[in-house]
Amino acid sequence: MSMLIKKGRVVDPKNSVDRVCDILIVKNKIKHVAKTINAKAQQTIDAQGCIVMPGLVDMHVHLREPGREDKETIASATGAALKGGVTSLLAMPNTTPCIDSPQSVSVLQKAISKTAKAQVLIAGAITRGRKGHELVNIAGLKAKGVTVITDDGSSVDDEKVLLQAMQHAKKHSIVVMCHCEDVFLSDEGSVNRGLTSTRMGLRGISKASEFKRIERDISLSEKAGAHIHIAHVSCKESVDIIRKAKKKHILVTAETCPHYFALTETAVLDFDTNMKMNPPLRGAEDAAAIKKALADGTIDVIASDHAPHTDNEKDIEFERAAFGIIGLETELAVTITELLHTGIMDWRRIAELVTLNPSNVLGLNRGSIAQGDEADIVIVDPNQEWALAKQEILSKSKNSPFINKKLKGRSMHTILGGKLVYSYREQT
Amino acid sequence: MTKWGQKDLLGLENLSREQIELVLSTAESFKEVSTRGIKKVPALRGKTVVNLFYEPSTRTRVSFEIAAKRLSADVINIATETSSVKKGETLIDTGLSIQALKADVIVVRHNASGAAAMLARHVGISVVNAGDGWHEHPTQALLDIFTLKQKLGKIKGLKVSIVGDIAHSRVARSNIWGLTKLGAKVTVCAPELLIPPEVEKMGVSVTHSIDSALSRADAVNVLRMQFERDTGAAFPRQLEYFKNFAVTEERLKKAKKDIIVMHPGPINRGIEISSAVADGKNSVILEQVTNGIAIRMAVLFLISQVRRKQ
Could you tell me if B142 and B265 lie in one domain? Predict the structure, then answer.
């Protein structure tokens, strides 16, 4: 099997490449990248006018399988991923049952090998049942190939437990991904605390609930010397804390999600539960700080925090509705719309944020388009304007805040291991 | 001539000054109906109004019921204790069933903020918010403003203080939107923990002193303190609240002589207001109740006009 991608603008963040050239793929590997390749291939893709970049690595995805297959399955999530240009993703462990033992990793791996359409990696929990008390068997998880542990959805409240987890993680070269939230400060809120919560008559989630916990977790990681990764950063204060920590050379990476720079808290004012997630949408100054942090290297990764919920859990009273939104099908387009077309950054930085950096955090060898690399590629039309229609969503759940929003930039082809696994076709 | 132009009344935040004034002037013409020997006009004959109340309420529900009946509408009351809500039916399903029964208006009271807005998105018939969580209680604010206007002739330039649990009060929020849109100067007064964050950005001043809230005010709206509500440690004890925040004769001596004292009811005598003040010459509490009918008649009438055109 061979494939030739012609005349695309190849953006390879690892090798600092950004130029128009051809790519020859043989079997699952990139065979050759050059200005002009005249070799014969079984399949040719004309990529003129398009960006050819490594497939996205989304390190924050809730598959909902096992346990809530009514919301999403491995098959439906990975199908949605390919449509969005995501070729590798990290599955969060907050399923039912929770992925907190080597055995549960094995069971999930088996299911993945049967139905996954994209590469799926598994994050293990930090504590048994994500309850925050008893550490999981970290060495055992490592032996199963786990490289990240997280109690995502919950913060580990007990400092002693988290410090111990970090010490073990360091020993086994595992990254501790931190959902930073002090639930007492969150006050059972459902929107940003401030004018928004006041106007809506809802309890508010303060920024302090996030940034105070980030501060704590960074100081613990400094003590343990472990690599921690801060999930879903939403506000300016958090960005400032992470920037300072990086200046002190503390081993911390950070991620944000497209909604935290594309949307602000005013979007929730008419009680649209598709605008409800945790942490909540914040102010305009926070979105601006996040964009700046993405450009200057303070934030390393853009991930979707893809969190499918059925209509039954969303189409109810705002304060009772589930937190979370889907994002696999829109994250690249929203990123391009908000960060590239606005001139905030160039393609290379975007490719770093969505491919190379998350790949590095996960210890994967993605985010590169050079001879010998795995051929996971997305071909993007940077100028195509479109809007997501609800009926086009491939994810089983439809809880997207970007439905009917104008976007610019669309993934046209997705190649996984040398195979063309998704091509955009206009609906007629 | 201002157009009303919407099928629902969900809150005052999203109404224009003109729309609010239209409700007030419409209420003015309906007020007279309640003074007639035969208190009925045929404006909503053949229409069905459903009161869907998920929270206990006597005066608001009765007021809506009387308003609808004086407009000749048929009225059905649904209380949560007796309906399939007990069986776990969702608000949307209940709303759709009421729509399928060919009702024209749902008047909804619910303990979740935004519940009325959610219902209005899902049904084609009119929805009137009779109080949603801590969010809005538009007809209460409209009747408060109507009463003020009847008493003082105008709203623009008035100094109005709202005293009580602002953080958890839908009455406070609706009053803030309505009064500020009409040009009043609003001050909110409460213990620090009962002031919601960044409320100044809604265009009001904040004070923690009842005396400064009363001084130079043209009117004071005293909110009911709900000590039975579970809001955690933020609540001071009743006696302490009375000592520091209650509107008493003593305190009114330092206020404008003809200050208007309002209360949305039901009142807690001896907690947020003394009996002497509640029953005194400055109090318009019972007039508010009477005016509530005219306001609700106006609202039901205006939203039904829109429906008729569709």
Answer: yes
- Domain with B113, as residue range(s), is 17-137+292-309
CA distance to partner chain A, nearest, from residue B133 (Å): 7
Determine whether the interchain pair B110/A317 forms a contact, defined as Cβ–Cβ distance below 8 Å: yes
For the stretch A87-112, pLDDT in tens is 999 999 999 999 999 999 999 999 99
By DSSP bridging, strand A2-12 and strand A43-46 are parallel
The token duo for A70 is 């009514």
Q: What is the pLDDT of residue B253?
A: 96
| Within a domain: A8 | no
Q: Which of B44, B52, B47, B46 is nearest to B106 (CA)?
A: B52
Tokens of residue B120, six digits? 């209005």
State pLDDT tens for residues A326-339: 999 999 999 999 99
Which residues of chain B approach chain A closer than 8 Å at the C-beta?
13, 90-92, 110, 112-115, 117-118, 122, 132-136, 170, 173, 196-199, 201-202
Contacts with A194 from chain B: Cβ below 8 Å: 197-198
A404 CB contacts (<8 Å, ≥6 apart)?
A: A387, A388, A389, A390
Looking at the fold, whether B162 and B25 belong to one and the same domain comes out as: no
Catalytic status, residue A305: yes
Query: Is the per-residue pLDDT at B228 higher than 80?
Result: no
A27 touching chain B per CB within 8 A: no
For residue B1, being part of any structural domain is answered with no
Shared-domain flag, residues B238 and B121? no
For residue A272, the chain B residue with the least C-alpha distance is B118
Q: List pLDDT tens digits, range B154-183.
A: 999 999 999 999 999 999 999 999 999 999
Q: How many CA atoms lie within 13 Å of B180's alpha carbon, on the beta-carbon side?
A: 20
**Residue B51, in any domain of the structure:** yes
Contact B31, B149 (CB under 8 A): no
Question: How many domains does the structure of chain B reveal?
Answer: 2
Residue A400: inside a domain, yes or no?
A: no
Average pLDDT of the segment spanning B225-253: 78
Is B264 a domain residue? yes
Q: Between A and B, how many CB-CB pairs are < 8 A?
A: 65
